[in-house]
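Sanity check

After download, print the first record. It should look like this:
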Amino acid sequence: MSAPTGRTYDCTARPGSDFQMPLAGRAVPHMRQSRPSTRFDSLEHQAFASVRGVCALPPGHQLVGREVIRPKDLANQPFIALAAEDRARHRLDAILSAEGVQPRIIVETPSSATLCALALNGVGIGITNPAAAEGFDVRGLVFRPFEPAVYFKSIMLFRPDAQKTRLVKDFVSALLGARTSEGKRP
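Expected structure tokens:
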């Protein structure tokens, strides 16, 4: 299945595993989560949100009873990781490395929503963007805070050669208002 942009991503298990799942990529026009190799020098851009990641746990998982998930809790757990180029993944890897924790990565995916779907199906646990996790709790996925915090940052991109119309300005204002009312910080 192709995404609206025509791109398709593959979500493939680590070598030695028999788990494979195709993943259709989704794109939100003019918004994206930042990647380490992304350069915005030629684009007009604005910070949109920085949200604290949460740990996604399948129903009945042994860590569900904990109020907070910490790096040591991830040791030897089947782990669903975000793609290696994801900045939140870099921040998480640095935290785990400092704590001497090496997660047992089962699957890597570029999508927090896919991470949640996989966790819901018992593939493993993972640290996810709560914005992408919306709706999974009513299906049974359990979320717990992760300490120390890992932030997921989003930016708005604008074409520098296009004038912002009144409609675009109103839309951006509405987005920023919604973000502020939900307590997300830029």
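If your output differs, re-run the checksum step. Summary of this record's structure: Residues 33 and 184 are 14 Å apart (CA to CA).
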